[in-house]
Design goal:
2 copies of one chain form a homodimer. Chain A has 474 residues and is an alpha+beta fold. In chain A, 18% of the residues lie in helices and 34% in strands.
Chain lengths: 474, 474
């Protein structure tokens, strides 16, 4: 130990506890508040429908040649915008070595991928009314949504959006999330988007509590978590951006323990990251084997996975009369499911360490099952993806949660998945899971999701739905 | 809530607490145990010298033409091994946009970089003797160390090493870290290596507690944390791999709070990650401007940064009579320093969100100052790196910790830095720090380092030295 005396502390400077002991209890209160102080749940449908009438939109498929500002770059075949902004569709080559030490089975594949290197903000503003936290949600049209209009976060802005906003632009409520006057941060973390469709895309997921009055603008409404959780049980109401932000909420840990301690869980994740050697490189789109480009679609030779298509959007009530853009359109309805079991009375979920070509760091934790069944219809027996057939054959009385949700409607067309939480037993999902799978508690997922790039976007959707499913420990 | 009853729990399955409440106290005990049960501190020097005599090595500089198995690839100029193994020296092009929204100043640079995509294991085995945790350290020669022999972790293995080990190879003690029979995990996390010299290199940092007897092999010794901390106050004894592993130790949090709550700190990090847009791409080494290749070195035109050189290693006591390899040799002594202040009696460190071209995700937290002063000797006034001159001019009575340590001797030749922890005051380091800097507590750094890619390797060295510096809260 050094011998010199401590220098004096700064007068009047206070430190604070590292955690706000009150916050998770306030979140729990909002989750059990079924009726909002602002918009009643029974009035919500009417309000959303009214917003739909006030914001008329039309989306039409068009051939690539009718895209305005977009074209296939001559030297690469990449689909690009002439401004260099927005995103590009390029090729991706992925090589993967598995095995206990990354020295096992070798796989390689090629695919089109969306490259959009900028970090956007997905933010939900939170405020107390009558002592209960309410969340400011927005009725927002996105061209890829099957029903166009869904509930989005308060702010859903690309960096170009909010940079412009900073210069006096038009992203509503952005000032609550960036800059000196912002509110009290509840969550703020970079999370991955779909690793099968995006190359290393991440967005900033934020929840911020406002201090003082907040003006309520058209297309926005305040809802309690209890109300949102009720809407999460319906198909295609709460959009993906909302779900991923909500997954970052610090729900309380009831302190009931877990099969794996936290360090055992982190060690398992580290091992999964280490044993998968993944190399993903962008390549010219016109060099991608197995995919063919037509006048209106780029598609896989066997009709699997997804198509790249183009749409024209006509907005009825805006200065902007419309725009055109490419979208990715999956070929079938996806399935994303957590198997759940109680061990010593504590609910656990079976996570899967998934490689997706666009992830920043080899693997993230996904649901037990995450597949588009039609892509695997040609496979038999042991080549079938693990747990998929069990999930597809689940009896109704074992389904704790089921809803169809769509993925980000600004990039994906009709990208719907059945999200499920299913009770399992020792026969279907043993206590000692196969390699690549682990049993974790909801509280452990809530701790992991604070740090980013641990849970993929499908797992985050299901994490956001746990309260709606009644699967959290009490 | 669903109405079906809960299915029965599995009989006889127990959950455990998420955290081992005892562990950090046991670490604190080891840190205050100045004398080991195995090797006395006063005998350590003699033991290390004896190990040096038993392991004689010679390292000679050679021209690139005398490298065996290594050559400059014709089409790219990259320096590669004919087996495709080990690592390559390639070019890197980095573009960076800063500013509040990544729309600010723009910088671009080129440099040589080491590409070694595989994940190695750095592991220290831990075991109780007389109720006190001891750490199994190895006397290990590395060609780049100025004094060749330093204390390394129990295991320091590339993936090729331990894959071979798995097949019956020769990495000593590896079975305690991988595979079914391994011990109880204390830490296990992927951490970055030097982002200025390595392209996205990470290693698995592990601490594992052995159960049962452990044979003590030549070149190994058991030391308490108190003994290791004493050695950390000396120059060039504890090697970089040991320091980064030790930085992952879960030292106890005394619960005294912090200037920023944890979520405010995470939010600040997320903001720093978002506002820096960094694009780093490997390019052919012979296209890198500003660097010239001679017979024995690749160096910067102005003599700055580092040189790529080649050495021949002759091992006196081995079957392997020797090998040749390239190394990176920095041009001068580096300085890595944390400024520290107490706020409300709680020690804080001033971290810097640093962009290094080889980082996986834009920024990691580094020390307040991390520069090689000779690289900046040509700069004046406001172009000088922030805090550098204050650190270089520090009066002796403000230095809480000072030692010269070297970086990884398997890749870097004579890469020494002065590591410092310096008491600051409101004048040199105000309570409200400039953009890119934040005050955090040692306990907060210990929480962050669990999750990987938050602290760079220099900050981790200083974190490992905090106990030696007496800067942790009590």
């Amino acid at each position: 130990m050094p011998s010199q005396p401590d220098r004096p502390s700064v007068a009047g400077v206070a430190v604070q506890p590292r955690e706000d002991g009150n916050l998770s209890a306030r979140i729990a209160v909002s989750a059990t508040t079924a009726q909002g102080a602002q918009l009643r749940t029974e009035d919500f449908r009417g309000w959303l429908a009214e917003r739909g009438r006030a914001n008329t939109f039309r989306v039409d498929r068009i051939p690539f040649a009718e895209l305005i500002g977009w074209s296939f770059e001559e030297s690469t075949g990449n689909l690009v915008h002439r401004s260099g902004r927005f995103f590009t569709v390029e090729g991706l080559r992925v090589t993967e070595e598995d095995g206990p030490y990354g020295d096992g089975p070798y796989a390689q594949w090629h695919q089109p991928i969306i490259k959009q290197p900028e970090v956007g903000i997905l933010g939900i503003l939170v405020k107390e009314f009558g002592g209960v936290l309410h969340f400011l949600m927005q009725a927002k049209m996105e061209p890829g949504n099957p029903n166009l209009l869904q509930l989005s976060p308060t702010v859903q802005a690309t960096r170009s959006n909010y940079t412009k906003a900073h210069q006096g632009g038009d992203v509503k409520y952005i000032e609550y999330f960036v800059g000196p006057g912002r509110g009290r941060v509840i969550a703020d973390v970079l999370q991955s988007e779909h690793g099968s469709w995006f190359f290393r895309k991440s967005n900033r997921n934020m929840l911020v509590e406002a201090e003082g009055d907040v003006p309520l603008l058209d297309d926005f409404c305040w809802l309690t978590l209890g109300q949102i959780n009720e809407l999460l049980r319906e198909d295609n109401v709460v959009n993906m951006d909302s779900r991923t932000v909500l997954s970052c909420l610090p729900y309380p840990d009831t302190g009931t323990g877990a099969l794996l301690s936290d360090i055992e869980l982190l060690s398992w994740i580290t091992n999964e990251r280490s044993r998968h050697a993944v190399r993903a490189e962008c390549v010219p789109l016109d060099t991608v084997p197995g995919w063919k480009r037509g006048e209106s679609t780029i598609e896989h030779e066997a009709g699997r996975y997804f198509k790249v298509v183009a749409v024209a959007v006509t907005a009825g009530n805006r200065e902007v009369t419309g725009w055109t853009q490419p979208l990715f359109e999956p070929v079938g309805l996806g399935v994303a499911a957590f198997l759940t079991r109680k061990f010593a009375g504590v609910p656990h979920l079976l996570v899967h360490a998934r490689v997706e070509g666009g992830f920043l760091d080899t693997i993230e934790l996904g649901p037990t099952v995450q597949y588009t069944p039609t892509n695997y219809a040609h496979l038999q027996g042991k080549d079938r993806p693990r747990y998929l057939d069990e999930v597809l054959a689940t009896a109704a009385d074992r389904i704790r949660y089921e809803a169809v949700h769509s993925e980000e409607g600004g990039r994906f067309l009709n990208a719907e998945s059945r999200y499920l939480i299913i009770e399992a037993d020792e026969e279907t999902a043993p206590l000692d899971p196969p390699p690549g799978y682990a049993w974790v508690t909801p509280a452990q997922l809530t701790s992991l999701v604070r740090h980013g790039h641990f849970l993929n976007v499908q797992a985050r959707t299901l994490l956001a739905c746990l309260e709606a499913a009644g699967v959290r420990a009490r």
